[in-house]
Amino acid sequence: MADTLFALPGHALIALEGRDAAAFAQAQFMNDVALLEPGQWQWNGWLTPKGRVIALLALLKRSDDMLWLLLPDADAVAFAAALQRFVFRSKVRIQVREDLHACGRFAAPANASGATFAGGEDTGIELDIGSPGALRTLRLSPTPGRQDEAAAARWHALDLEHGLPRLPASQVEQWTPQQLSLDRLRAFSVKKGCYPGQEIVARTHFLGQAKRGLVLLESDAALEAGRDVTAGAVAMGKLVAAGFDGAKHLALAVMPLEREAVELEVDGTPVVERPIRDGLSR
What we know:
Elements: E1 6-7, E2 12-17, H1 21-28, E3 40-47, E4 53-63, E5 66-71, H2 76-84, E6 93-96, E7 101-105, E8 118-120, E9 124-128, E10 137-141, H3 149-161, H4 198-206, E11 212-219, E12 228-231, E13 234-244, E14 249-256, E15 264-266, E16 269-274
Protein name: Folate-binding protein
InterPro entries: TrmE/GcvT-like, YgfZ/GCV_T_CS, YgfZ/GcvT
Keywords: Transit peptide
């Protein structure tokens, strides 16, 4: 069943099309869109002016005048409407692509590799969203994938294991890119110039003020984003994303980068720190 495509709930696609599409994305989003050639993609995101993550996304450069934004969690209609407020005189059209569906498969892509995607709109476009130890293909297809809650939950858990924070609504606009360790994904730039929140991101980077980052935790009980991670009576951090792969409960927490090794709990239940997988940076 590894080659069977299954639906990825919550994923949605927005297209930016027009002469100024790339320039508009470069001015709004936190990664350097100018580094992409047609046929390549990157992790990217949109920040508040205070440098807090509104949404993490995959940005695909179809051509010089067409970009696609793949949103794993955000409300695409609300995101597009918010983005539209910044178009002003730019020649760019923002459209939610409800005709294309995000599907997953636990196998290597047929043609895509790393930051290079493959395929066409009519037949489907595939992305390499895996790592050496966890092969995965994400496909944007005109045909919906089959409904498989267990497979979708496993996919979600693998995102967390790779340090990809799947932010629920309660965690939107709460964290900086550094606090979410988005440097692991090469998802933001401190050199490209102005974008919303850039001053905060750059200052944190160049002054060495990043004191917290992501930690992967495992528990025997269900975990919920927004809960505190504690060591006895001392608050150590906060859960920002959680999931269950059918065997273990996982969560990503923002915690101090420098801390002593202590026993941790969430709501009185012990949690154990696990290493975050490498291989998802693009």
